[in-house]
Amino acid sequence: MPAKPTKAQLAAASAAVLPDVLEPDLDVLFCGINPGLYSGALGLHFARPGNRFWPALHAGGFTPRLLDPSEQHELLGLGLGITNVVARTTARADELSGDELRAGGRALAAKVREYRPRWLAVVGITAYRTAFGEPKAQVGRQDRTVGHTRVWVLPNPSGLNAHWTAPRLAEAFGELRRAVTVEYGT
């Protein structure tokens, strides 16, 4: 993992856009809400210490070992990728407007149609509800598809989402992993 970013690097990251970890025909495309300043400064998805994405991904059975954010491109070899609903970095996801999330949802749907992952897994129920106009959506498998891509919503793995404990996050990620395995044998 790269060194902890300085205050100046964090401030400069407010204009950062992280490139997707993406290629066509993935098994699962994980979609964050938007990158935080820490991730923007390092150029790595889910990079902030305390973010539980990488541990939940491993505990849920998606990776053979716990990956460091600096190893994010190893996901492609496992049939996995990462993108975001909104590309711009912020200190907190609640800095995003509803309009920004809805526009991000439209852009995400276009990206999904282009790259055709088998599953889209949005990490963050509140952002999903706004981005896709589904105010009553719950964590888990959704009734909607984007093109032929099935949609699943996972809890936000941020350390700020404390009511989702590490074991509950692992269980939620594991449910998606079992669905992927059952439907596609991967």
Structural notes for this entry:
It comes from Amycolatopsis ultiminotia. This protein is an alpha/beta fold and 186 residues long. It has one domain (7-184): Uracil-DNA Glycosylase, subunit E (3-Layer(aba) Sandwich). The protein is 34% helix and 15% strand. The protein has 6 helices and 5 strands. It has a 5-stranded mixed β-sheet with strand order 2-1-3-5-4. The longest helix has 19 residues, at 166-184. The radius of gyration is 15 Å and the shape is globular. It starts with 6 loop residues before the first helix and ends with a helix. The model has no long low-confidence stretch (mean pLDDT 93).
What's the SSE blueprint?
Layout: H1 7-12, E1 28-32, H2 37-42, H3 53-59, E2 80-84, H4 98-115, E3 119-123, H5 125-131, E4 140-146, E5 149-154, H6 166-184
Parallel strand pairs: 1-2, 1-3, 3-5
Antiparallel strand pairs: 4-5
Helix pairs in contact: 3-6, 4-5
Keywords: DNA damage, DNA repair, Hydrolase
Pfam family, one: UDG
Domain Uracil-DNA glycosylase-like: 19-185
